[in-house]
Amino acid sequence: MIFSGFLDLPWWGYVVAALALTHVTIAAVTIYLHRCQAHRALELHPVVSHFFRFWLWMTTGMVTREWAAIHRKHHAKCETVDDPHSPQIHGLSKVLWTGVFLYVKESYNQETMERYGHGTPDDWLERNFYGRFSYAGVFVLLGVNGLIFGIVPGILIWLTQVAWIPFWAAGVINGVGHFFGYRSYDVGDASTNIVPWGILIGGEELHNNHHAFASSAKLSSKWYEFDIGWMYIRLMEMLGLATVKKIAPKPRFAAAKAAVDLDTLHAVIANRYDVFSRYAKSVKRTYADEVERLKHWSPRDAEVLRSLKRALLRGQQVAGAEGAKLTEVLKNSRALETVIAMRNELAKLWERSSASKEQLLRQLQDWCHRAEASGIASLVDFSQRLRSYA
Asked: CA 50 to CA 266: how far, in whole Å?
């Protein structure tokens, strides 16, 4: 009798039901909370928004304003001591297994709510129901599950539902997504793409892509990547239930120009993350050549480069004793020293907000001239590619 509910399913039927229900929750988080509310990458029909709000109230107890504010602060303070859940600061284990507690702790920070929680729903339902009784929904869900699936299966499915988001979103995405994986874009944080097929977590697996283009409604960028959340958005768009506001730009190329002009400058600035991802390949190529060269006549220097591979390829600052060692090694590696220095120079182009476009153009032209005069094959190839952005 305790196994009886409105639905009498075989054991595998309950497993399928649990996976289907948790997938709806994942879709609500990635489409409504993340892409729509936190980043304003799309607009949703009121019916869809209210459905997602109600569903998230029942399955997670999360308040839209709190989630959006905490996530926006994560982007603004990424990998710093003010980041609510960076594994680079708190450690991977803590974020992976107790990330939900970091979220809850930050939700009590009123400064975070006031500074980053703007523009989220503030209607009567939000103030008097979803926000006021945020955790009541999960107990309503427990009762509903018991009626539909029976007491024991209902409780097991309920436990799966309430644990799904804390583990996969607060743990895996915020933890593993800033520690392990591949990087398509050389952004200034440690974000990674966990796998190229964003299905299990609704597309959030493509976390490095998201940090490169935070306001994009589409998280996939390479031909081999798949974002199931984007598929749902496109289906809703065709049904008139969603309006996409922005997606990441796709770089276009033409024949390399004899010299960088204003059109090239605009294209390079618009595609800065594609530029840096391609430059990362130049750094990687030069790094491999220099390690191979140094291991024959200076094994100690080669070992230092190997130990700092991750920081060097990601453009991270190396300080302290390791920084001193790297400085000494680079004195014996002109090519790698030049490539790293010119990467930093290229990055500063986007930091010079007070410079006129003519000044930026001259700086980029000078950069290309020095790159091609360096005699470093990877730099020469990259500079020629830079002149082909259209």
From this structure: 40
Q: How many residues does the chain have?
A: 390
Whole-angstrom distance, CA of residue 262 vs CA of residue 186: 24
Question: Which residues, 6+ apart, have CB-to-CB distance to 139 below 8 Å?
Answer: none
DSSP 114: H
CA distances (Å), 277 to each of 5, 188, 252, 283, in order? 54, 11, 15, 10
Q: pTM for the whole thing?
A: 0.83
What's the token pair of residue 380?
């020469």
What DSSP string describes 61-84? ---HHHHHHHHHHHHHTTTSTT-T
- d(CA 340, CA 290) in angstroms, rounded, equals 13
What confidence tens digit (pLDDT) does each residue in 193-225 have? 999 999 999 999 999 999 999 999 999 999 999
8 A C-beta contact, residue 95 and residue 85: yes
Q: Where are the alpha helices (DSSP H) in the chain?
A: 11-27, 46-59, 64-76, 87-90, 92-107, 110-116, 124-125, 136-149, 151-167, 174-175, 207-212, 228-238, 262-270, 272-297, 299-307, 309-314, 320-330, 334-348, 357-373, 377-386
Question: What b/e readout covers 143-161, taking b as 16+ CB neighbours within 10 angstroms?
Answer: eebbeebbeebbebbbebb
9-54: pLDDT as tens digits: 999 999 999 999 999 999 999 999 999 999 999 999 999 999 999 9
**43: three-class secondary structure by DSSP:** strand
Q: Give the pairing of strands 42-44 and 242-244.
A: antiparallel
Which token pair is 179? 């520690």
